[in-house]
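--- STAGE predict ---
source: upstream dedup step, 1 unique chain passed
mode: sequence only
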Amino acid sequence: MNILEMMKTNIAGATIPEQYKSLSVKEMEERVSEIKARLGKRLFIPGHHYQKDEVIKFADATGDSLKLAQLSAENTDAEFIVFCGVHFMAETADILTTESQKVFLPDMRAGCSMADMADINQTQTCWSELQEIFGDTILPLTYVNSTAAIKAFVGKNGGATVTSSNAKKMLQWAFTQKERILFLPDQHLGRNTAQTLGIPLDKMAVWDPIHHTLGYKGKVEDIKIILWKGHCSVHENFTPTNVENIRKTKPEMNIIVHPECPYETVALADYAGSTAYIIEMIEKAPSGSKWAIGTEMNLVQRIITQHPDKEIISLNPHLCACLTMNRIDLPHLTWSLEMIERRELTQHIKVPDEIAQYAIFALNRMLQRA
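--- STAGE serialize ---
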């Protein structure tokens, strides 16, 4: 189910009861703390880097989506995993955990617009048309920021998942398997990664899933990378103009961006890398250093708070929070935990067995090489 469907449909667990909206912060924090104490090791709360501080303060672990899913699987004492992130992250946690563990998403509307830019029907149509053009010369790769159904499609067709940290390594592996790569769903990560391997832009095409067209000028046999026309609505708003403004007004600043940003922005930045890379770079930077960061605003604000000895700003000062990434808040977390205690498991994320079976193939091919 994509974001629009979740917004339009009154699915079980999607609408928070009115009573939670009138609770004070103190009341909710006390309730969450009490439930955590009562459930002990039976409860595990992973919190993604991009979540709000009011939720992160109760997280048992923070990190990117894959790391948190792996930690959930390793935490075998945890019967209840309340994933503070978005839908595809909770799906991955469910795929990797055991049948005795249950994964919950405090707000079922929490999603990722990029993941929803590649649905399974569009992908199957794309694959059929590309097979007609190129034959059996393509291997699919998908960013972990994708639905379980897309991961399953990739796994079923011999491909693998990738993260922003290991995309280069996985792309290198993929080219040992096939002549061409279909990269889903983020064109920017695919383009930026391929460029680091020396693949020129004129050997990259873009598949438009809406119009069923392959955007490319030249001979199709020269194509090495087929990029899905998808993007992160947050990272796409870090532009070359933002970089140029920093260079003019604060020329002493280091500019570091996430590879989900457009190619032109990444090319102008001083550094580019995953969320973990960005965090580590700032942590290791000398006191007094100055940084403009191109990634999600909750994380940037947290980094600013954690490093008062450095001058840190957002590369785009006018950036708004991601509508769906920021849905989980303290009221939803409180409600979710109380529902679990009452055994009303309406926010349960369960990936169908057949989809999970093939999705784990894609994940394991990556984990074996990461």
